[in-house]
């Protein structure tokens, strides 16, 4: 059975969708309040999230950002907001699809299964690839070829973010936004570049010609392996 976490404060719509999707072996658990949804994602295994944007207490785009940051799960935005900026922002944040309300529940059912087929296929392919770098968030450790890389707290924060966003360009601003240790003083003093260089000294075969942690001129950094 496919398990869905829905974040929707329109309880009548949530009930209609829940009853409809049940016919297709899709079990929906709805959360009217976004903070409850985020807490539940930490405790329960879901296959996909259906997320409204207009929610009590927290904007849906912020919820989307938190889910992408902390969970490896596909997201369908289900929203009555017609501003194209919201759609573009949601997709840029990492949402997999955007379904404007009102829509036919049959379309939602098809999109759920299409996204899960693509997502699961990607995960299967990733599992076949042997990774040089492994991130252990529980222990806050990173290893290369099964050897622990000794990092400072700031170096770990930066490298762990890069590994989680592998193959994506991460801007300097996004690094600061996702860091509890770095602040704007690092940006003004150029210390972020110093941290990047220190990381390269520890993970690259040739730090002067980085293969894993690359600088993308004018955009930021990208981690590949």
Topology:
Layout: E1 2-7, H1 11-22, E2 26-31, H2 34-43, E3 48-51, H3 60-70, E4 75-79, H4 84-93, E5 97-100, H5 105-128, E6 133-136, E7 141-144, E8 147-148, H6 153-164, E9 169-170, H7 172-177, H8 184-189, H9 191-203, E10 213-216, E11 220-223
Parallel strand pairs: 1-2, 1-3, 3-4, 4-5
Antiparallel strand pairs: 6-7, 7-8, 9-11, 10-11
Q: What's the order of the H and E elements?
A: EHEHEHEHEHEEEHEHHHEE
How many individual helices?
9
Total count of strands: 11
How would you write the strand order of the largest sheet? 2-1-3-4-5
Tell me the radius of gyration: 20 Å
SS-based class: alpha/beta
- Report helical residue fraction: 40-55%
Strand content: 15-25%
Question: How many domains, in number, for the residues?
Answer: 2
Q: Give the CATH class of the largest domain.
A: Alpha Beta
Q: Alpha-carbon distance between the termini?
A: 34 Å
Explain what you see:
- This protein is of the alpha/beta class.
- The chain folds into two domains: 2-128, 3-Layer(aba) Sandwich (Rossmann fold), CATH 3.40.50; 133-223, Arc Repressor Mutant, subunit A.
- The chain has nine helices and eleven strands.
- The chain has helices spanning 11-22, 34-43, 60-70, 84-93, 105-128, 153-164, 172-177, 184-189, 191-203, and strands at residues 2-7, 26-31, 48-51, 75-79, 97-100, 133-136, 141-144, 147-148, 169-170, 213-216, 220-223.
- The strands form three sheets. A five-stranded parallel β-sheet has the order 2-1-3-4-5, with helices on both faces.
- A hairpin with a 4-residue loop joins strand 6 and strand 7.
- The radius of gyration is 20 Å and the shape is elongated.
- The model has no long low-confidence stretch (mean pLDDT 90).
């Amino acid at each position: 059975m496919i398990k869905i976490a829905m974040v929707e404060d329109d309880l009548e719509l949530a009930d209609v969708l829940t009853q409809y999707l049940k016919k297709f072996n899709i079990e929906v658990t709805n959360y009217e309040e976004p903070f409850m949804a985020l807490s539940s994602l930490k405790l329960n295994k879901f296959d996909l999230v259906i997320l409204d944007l207009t929610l009590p207490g927290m904007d849906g785009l912020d919820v989307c950002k938190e889910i992408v940051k902390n969970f490896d799960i596909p997201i369908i935005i289900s929203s009555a907001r017609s501003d194209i900026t919201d759609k573009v922002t949601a997709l840029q944040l990492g949402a997999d699809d955007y379904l404007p309300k009102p829509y036919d529940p049959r379309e939602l059912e098809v999109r759920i299964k299409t996204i899960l087929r693509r997502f699961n296929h990607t995960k299967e392919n990733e599992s076949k690839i042997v990774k040089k770098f492994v991130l252990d968030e529980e222990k806050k450790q990173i290893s290369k070829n099964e050897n622990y890389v000794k990092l400072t707290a700031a170096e770990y924060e930066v490298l762990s973010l890069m590994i989680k966003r592998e193959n994506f360009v991460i801007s300097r601003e996004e690094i600061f936004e996702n860091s509890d240790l770095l602040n704007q003083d690092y940006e003004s003093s150029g210390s972020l570049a110093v941290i990047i260089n220190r990381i390269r000294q520890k993970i690259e075969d040739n730090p002067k010609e980085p293969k894993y942690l690359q600088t993308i001129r004018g955009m930021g950094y990208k981690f590949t392996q």
